[in-house]
Specification:
alpha+beta, four-stranded antiparallel sheet, 4 strands, 2 helices
Length: 84
């Protein structure tokens, strides 16, 4: 959680201003509160998503994908819904 601002800034330097940004507040079972940064970049050939906290306050997530990957996932999800 402590590095998410720096990492988000590095992504802004690389990809420019994000298409969407959200800052939310989280609270763990002990009452500690954290701010979570979520940013998304939608570009013609790829998309990048950043989640400053993902599940655990010490873990974040950066993912990148192309429109071709999104299409492939969508096609395969619909195929898998009809199987066990």
């Amino acid at each position: 959680a402590s590095d998410q601002s720096r990492i988000n800034s590095l992504l802004v330097q690389k990809y420019g201003p994000p298409t969407a940004t959200n800052i939310g507040n989280l609270q763990n079972g002990f009452g500690a509160q954290f701010s979570r940064i979520e940013s998304q970049w939608d570009m013609p050939r790829m998309g990048v998503a950043f989640h400053g906290i993902s599940g655990d306050a010490d873990e974040g997530l950066i993912s990148a994908g192309s429109p071709a990957l999104a299409k492939w996932r969508q096609e395969n999800e619909s195929k898998n819904k009809n199987s066990f």
